Amino acid sequence: MINLKTSEYCRSYCGVYLSEYIKNKKSQDTKLNLILIFFIICVLLAVIGVSKPIFAKADTTKTVVNTQQSIYLQKNFEENIKNKYAGSYVTFPSKGIAHIKKTQYINSKPIRVNIVEVNTNVNPYLKIKPQIAGRNLNSKTTVRRIARKDNAIVAINAGFFKPQTGAPLGALMIDKDILSGPIYNRVGIAIFENNGKTNFKMMPIDFNIIAYTKSRMLKVNNINQPRMLRSDILLYTSKWNKFSPYAPQNGANILIKGNKITKVSANPIEMEEGDLVLQGSKDIMHSLAKDGEIYININLSQELQGASHIIGAGPYLVKDSQVYVDYKTQKFEAIAGKNPRSAIGFKDDGTFIIVTVDGREKASVGMTLFELAKLMKNIGCRYAMNFDGGSSSALLVKDKIVNNAVNKEGVAVSNALTISEIGPDNSMISSL
After folding, report:
1. Per-residue pLDDT for 427 more than 80?
2. How many CB atoms lie under 10 A from the CB of residue 44?
3. Bridge-partner residues for 45, per DSSP?
């Protein structure tokens, strides 16, 4: 602190003027203290400023470059779409999304087609994921209502399901949560989200489910699926429904809470959040129950490791850029003829493609699976697969059903594939 001696020194050295100025010693000492503190602060700020200028202007060069690149990518995307679908009705519902409406002819018969192309390189904030109709798997609602859960810009009906209950008939995983397993080794699409990039794989889906206790280990045939064979061992989670299904004849259910077996019954068992029910033959279930504890492991095949979402349907339409319709292998003989259609695929550059085909009417007769496969190949799909079609086909763009569905809303379905836009702060951007 500057004290009295400082003031006296200044008076003797600087003369009468300064002496008068500092007549009030106490006041002057305070002023000099403040001056010294201010000087020290200025020195510190100058030192800090050498390493990082505090008041330097923000570097906007990167922002400008990114904005210009974004504008260029969107413009290039729009030009390519317009050239590719010349003569068709084309709109751009959002950045990186194109909607095309066209009519084509096969054997002089008209077919109305809706196509959506989604480029996540143009707009990395686009999120492609499946959604279910309700809180559990035994639920149904319209595509529009499913889309509104995520303010989806685009949504299409997706996998097959039991019409009576809405239970999915095929693989389904959302946000790495396995909801249901595959059937008949059918094809599915896996969606990978890594460092802002979206990639896809299309292949037969396989889950490996193992249950084990201290005395034995056994393979579980499926998860949250209707029973195919009496001998199957099935796993049900609280996502299935409030109650597990009845056990088959000479079968039993065991309730698992936190790896503890707490109940054995042939009747449906009520499940709380996180509970599991294992269902199989009475002998096997009672044998497992004696051990008291049981552990369940569910693993994806190696090629599916790291996927965020999976949805199964089928059959294949395009494989390695070639028409490939394995409808007999995947047990789809009943739907091979001309029908309304829903399909998805992706191109070499990662562009995701959605298609619906109107059918069963004079103005649009529908397509066979092979005709649909040729369409998907012709618009550039390296891989493509069929979704549930017929009366289930419904495509929503900007909250409007754009295909000629069975009714204005489309029928109630079990699940849908949605395209939403997520902002930089992970906030949902409205489609409306």
Report:
1. no
2. 10
3. none
Q: In terms of domains, do 168 and 199 share one?
A: yes
Q: Rounded to whole angstroms, how far apart are CA atoms 139 and 161?
A: 10
Q: Which of 347, 432, 364, 353 is nearest to 403 (CA)?
A: 364
* Residue at 315: amino acid letter: P
Q: Name the phi and psi angles at 74, rounded to 5.
A: -65, -45
Count of domains in the chain?
3
Mean pLDDT across 281-292: 95
Report whether 112 contacts 363 (CB < 8 A).
Answer: yes
pLDDT over threshold 60, residue 150:
yes
The gap between the terminal CA atoms of the chain, to the nearest Å, is: 66
In a domain, 58, yes or no: no
Are 74 and 96 in contact, with CB atoms under 8 Å apart?
A: yes
Alpha-carbon dihedral sign for residues 201, 327, 140, 207: negative
The answer to whether 350 touches 121, Cβ cutoff 8 Å, is: yes
Do residues 83 and 32 share a domain?
Answer: no
| Mean pLDDT (whole number) for 141-167 | 96
Structural domain containing residue 279: 208-300
Q: Which residue has the higher pLDDT, 21 or 376?
A: 376
List Cα–Cα distances, 421 to 97, 103, 142, 348, in angstroms: 11, 29, 21, 22
pLDDT at 12: 41
Cis geometry, peptide bond prior to residue 315 (ω within 30 degrees of 0):
yes
* 110 and 197 belong to one structural domain: yes
State percent of the chain over pLDDT 70.
83
What is the mean predicted confidence (pLDDT) over 178-185?
A: 95
What is the spatial distance between Cα 141 and Cα 58, in angstroms, rounded to a whole number? 50
Whether residue 167 sits in one domain with residue 263? no
| Tens digit of each residue's pLDDT (9 = 90 or more) over 66-112 | 778 889 999 999 999 999 999 999 999 999 999 999 999 999 999 99
List Cβ neighbours of 169 (8 Å cut-off, separation of 6 or more): 159, 160, 161, 162, 183, 225, 226
